[in-house]
Amino acid sequence: MTAKYIKEVANDVVFNLEYNAERPHLLIPEYGRHLQKLIDQATEIKDDVERNKAAKYIIQVMGSLNPHLRDVLDFQHKLWDQLFIMSDFKLVADSPYPIPTRDVIHLRPEILSYPQKYPKYRFYGNNIKFMIDVANKWEEGEMKSALIKVIANHMKKSYLSWNKDMVEDSVIFEHLFELSDGKLNLLQSEEELTTTTDLIRTNKKISNKTLLPQQKNLKIQAFKKPQAGKKPFVKNNNNPKT
Predict the structure, then answer these.
(1) What stretches in the chain show pLDDT beneath 50?
(2) Which distant-in-sequence residues (6+ apart) come within 8 Å of 202 by Cβ?
């Protein structure tokens, strides 16, 4: 008759404990150590039918962690890909989706160049330089003159957005001449841009539109004056002095 309980030696139990430092690295740690062991056991099954059953069972366990996405087709595809990744691509199973390979998983996309041109006057932005380049390609005429005036007004508006001081039109014309490589010359013209006061007022209107409704209410209440003729509230003393 076998004993119901086997008394173990404490030293042997401590000696056989598993430490995370000695365990193999988890490829996808979000699923935990137990699921990783299930996949390792399924990989070692020699029977194809039993191995496929084990793979489908593991997929169900993985899907139970996200029940709201368990029946979504794209999510099922993701689970099968993660199953093969966690098995280190050693699991052989009939997947309803294309089986990924190690080369595809570790393939890195090409590095995209950041579209930063480091303009000399950053407060104008890169779009101004693009508009100036377009204006340089246009033929002389009323359309080009109108575009140059629009560009100059926008430059002045951008200048005042970052620099609250007054700016003369001659400064904007010099910057326009420099950014256009001397092709757009308004230095000797009598053209007048929009006044600084109007541009500052326009910038304030735009900034007010970007405020949230709660912020607008707080701003209105801060500047709201008390109504005339209304007496201030005075708290009554229910316990007069004797």
Answers:
(1) 1, 219, 222-223, 242
(2) 157
CA 192 to chain centre: 42
- Mean per-residue pLDDT of the chain: 79
Q: How many residues does the chain have?
A: 242
Q: What is the pLDDT of residue 66?
A: 79
pLDDT tens readout for residues 36-67: 999 999 999 999 999 999 999 999 999 888 78
Q: Helix, strand or coil for residue 47?
A: coil
pLDDT in tens, 204-235: 665 555 555 555 555 455 445 555 555 555 55
Q: How far apart are CA 55 and CA 43, in angstroms?
A: 9
Q: How far apart are CA 29 and CA 214, in angstroms?
A: 43
CB 186 within 8 A of CB 193: no
Q: Which of 202, 132, 117, 122 is nearest to 173 (CA)?
A: 132
Query: CA-to-CA distance for 110 and 13, rounded, in angstroms?
Result: 52
Q: What is the DSSP letter of 23?
A: S
Distance (Å, whole) CA 83 – CA 39: 8
Q: Residue 147, exposed/middle/buried by CB under 10 A (0-12, 13-18, 19+)?
A: middle
Best CA proximity match to 81, nearest among 102, 65, 66, 64: 102
DSSP 80: H
Residue type, 77: H
Distance, CA of 56 to CA of 83 (rounded, Å): 10
Q: Can you give the pLDDT at residue 241?
A: 54
Query: What is the model's pLDDT at position 239?
Result: 56
- Round to whole Å and give the CA distance between 55 and 95: 9
